Amino acid sequence: MTRLSSESCEACRIDAPKLSDAEITDLLNDIDDWDLITEPVKQLKKEFNFRPKINIQKGILLHRQIDTFTDAHPTVRLSTKRLHENYGHYSGVIVDILYDHFLAKNWDHYSDIPLDKYIAKFYDLLEEHFEILPIRIQKMMPYMIEQNWLLSYTSIEGIGKILDQMNRRTNNQSKMNLAVLELTTYYKEFEEEFTLFFKDLKKYSKNKIIELKRL
After folding, report:
1. What is the pLDDT of residues 37-55, one digit of tens each?
2. Which residue among 31, 137, 160, 167 is the one 20 to 30 A from 91 at the CA level?
3. Residue 67 CB coordination number (10 Å)
4. Are 208 and 62 a contacting pair, CB within 8 Å?
5. DSSP E strand stretches across the chain
6. What's the number of CA atoms in the CB half-sphere (13 Å) around residue 50?
7. What is the mean pLDDT of residues 181-191?
8. Beta-sheet pairing, 35-37 with 43-45
9. How buried is 197 (Cβ within 10 angstroms: 0-12 exposed, 13-18 middle, 19+ buried)?
10. What residues contact 99, with CB distance under 8 A and at least 6 apart?
């Protein structure tokens, strides 16, 4: 595939040949939604709808607001406190992963779309937009899909593997791989806390989505 950076724009040269009226008419017949403007000089005009970009921006805003809400939620702090003695400032990261487990495990309580189909659609979107993904995600994506990391969140064994991966990313300093012990020991408590938190999060997110739609 030819890279755009190696190409040149002939029409951008000051001495570029001008199209005749007949050539312009032929070209306009071949392209959709372009208009010819004659003043002050002849040029083509096309209006783009950037609504998808705006929606992405709103999605990022919602994500950040959810992060802030989550970090300040008293139930989340209760879960984090249970881990803090052994894992320090990594406790919040571990709780995020444990809560993801309970979301995946109880997915049918929150969505009409089966989890495996939802994940497959997400993987399709990653592959569809591969070129705009950060390099780190591009490198990680084949392993994520092949090993189906997201579906592995449904099991304790899968969470153990995720925690082990996260621990290795900290050069084994976090010891997050050992948090499976706390998960199994306090499984009921963590699940009850997640359920209480997620009920509040759904309500909060619904209100924030309404606010963002007004922007």
Report:
1. 776 666 767 665 545 666 7
2. 137
3. 11
4. yes
5. 35-37, 43-45
6. 6
7. 98
8. antiparallel
9. buried
10. 76, 79, 190, 194, 197, 198
Q: What token pair was written down for 128?
A: 């569809």
Give the torsion sign (CA, 199, 203, 204, 209): positive
Those residues whose C-beta lies under 8 Å from the C-beta of residue 10, and which sit 6 or more positions away, are 16
Does residue 214 register a pLDDT over 90?
Answer: no
Cα 74 to Cα 79: distance, rounded to the nearest angstrom:
9
- Nearest-angstrom CA–CA distance, 25 and 31: 10
- Record the tokens describing residue 76, joined without a space: 């989340």
On the question of pLDDT at 5 being above 70, the answer is: no
pLDDT number for residue 47: 62
Answer positive or negative: Cα dihedral of 160, 166, 169, 173.
negative
The per-residue pLDDT for 52 is 60
